[in-house]
Amino acid sequence: SLFQVMTDGEPPMNALHGCSLPDENSSLSACPKEAWLEPAFTLAARTRVVVTSCFFMVAACSNSVVLYSVTRKRRKSHVQLLILSLTAADLLVTTIVMPLDAVWNITIQWYAGDSLCKLLNFLKLFAMYSAALVLVVISLDRHAAVLRPFSFANSNRRNRVMLSVAWVLSALLASPQLFLFHLYTVPGVNFTQCVTHGSFKERWQETTYNMFTFTTLYVTPLSVMVICYIRILFEISKQLKINQGLARGKDDHISKARMKTLTMTILIVASFIVCWTPYYLLGLWYWFQPDMIRQMPEYVNHFLFLFGLLHTCTDPIVYGLYTPSFREDMKMCLKGLKLTLTHQEKSLAVIVELKNKEDREQGRPRSSVSNGGTMHTAF
């Protein structure tokens, strides 16, 4: 189903011409063998793979720098702990969801065996749950910081508990994937896929599971985040009215620092909502009108899924805009990369020079290095 594509990045298990199969639990044997049309690596799928690969490189590099920037700080704050968990969740999505989605779209079939079929689909949903639930923890922390500022002393302990619950809950909510996914070979056709085909006895059971996943993965986190930030903005507007005309002092500087952190977290949550909402709404539409997936252009589904993955790239950008130390670490990493490349170029130049010397002694044409660092012959 489309929702499995939405949550797991699964390529379609079947593509039948002249057969009407509303879901993966429908019997394939009822369709004639000549009606089978094996899924192909289409232009839209190739584009998805290329864009996913680009997202992977950007997200992996930027989130790794965020991870390095946060862990190297001597003075740890409760906000840094939240950013660390968010970065870890984004790296899970980057290193599990993106590569598997790209490879699966290329191979179309599943070649990794039944155990990896179960494990990787569990890890993919676990990564997506952790990314959403960590954002919920961040929203609850900002809610407490603004509405209950005197509870700041217990914020570290509270956040550690909430983060532990978020990670454990992510694993529990994703655990059904270990039992639902398995290998399935189309009868009479040499085509094997990792699917949930046959795991649900009735259509309503699959719909109930999909609705449960949709609610826990998107609706509930979204509701908590929206409620938290609505209350935060309402409280801030109320405090601004109360504090109008008061002299500015040290407390005003502290409030500006907190407002800076609050703005950063609002942008991170907003990017999650903006990036993933269209894709989840598409899945919701599919449940009520299953036939629409046959009428929907293929590139629409690919584009909306890629737009959702874009969220893992936006988090480091938002964090960098509000964290000077991160920008310094990024510059240092780029400088180190530049020095490494310069050192490699110098080493290559020495090797070329030694080879030229040897060529001159033996009367052969000399070698040189082009601007791209490749060897060519110069006469």
Automatic annotation (TrEMBL):
Q: How does it sit in the membrane?
A: Multi-pass membrane protein
Tell me the superkingdom of the source: Eukaryota
The segments labelled Disordered in the record are 357-379
Q: Where in the cell is it found?
A: Cell membrane
GO MF, one term, reads: gonadotropin-releasing hormone receptor activity
The record ties this protein, via Pfam families, to: 7tm_1
Of the GO CC terms on this record, one is: plasma membrane
Which keywords does UniProt give here? Cell membrane, Disulfide bond, G-protein coupled receptor, Membrane, Phosphoprotein, Receptor, Transducer, Transmembrane, Transmembrane helix
What transmembrane ranges does the database entry give? 49-69, 81-100, 120-140, 161-181, 211-234, 266-288, 300-322
Q: Does the keyword Transferase apply?
A: no
GO terms, biological process: cellular response to hormone stimulus; G protein-coupled receptor signaling pathway
User: What CDD domains would the database entry show?
Assistant: 7tmA_GnRHR_vertebrate
> Which InterPro entries does the record match to this protein?
GPCR_Rhodpsn, GPCR_Rhodpsn_7TM, GphnRH_fam_rcpt
Ranges for domain G-protein coupled receptors family 1 profile come to: 62-319
The family annotation for this protein states: Belongs to the G-protein coupled receptor 1 family.
Q: What is this protein called?
A: Type II GnRH receptor
Organism source for this protein?
Anolis carolinensis (Green anole)
Gene name linked to the record: gnrhr
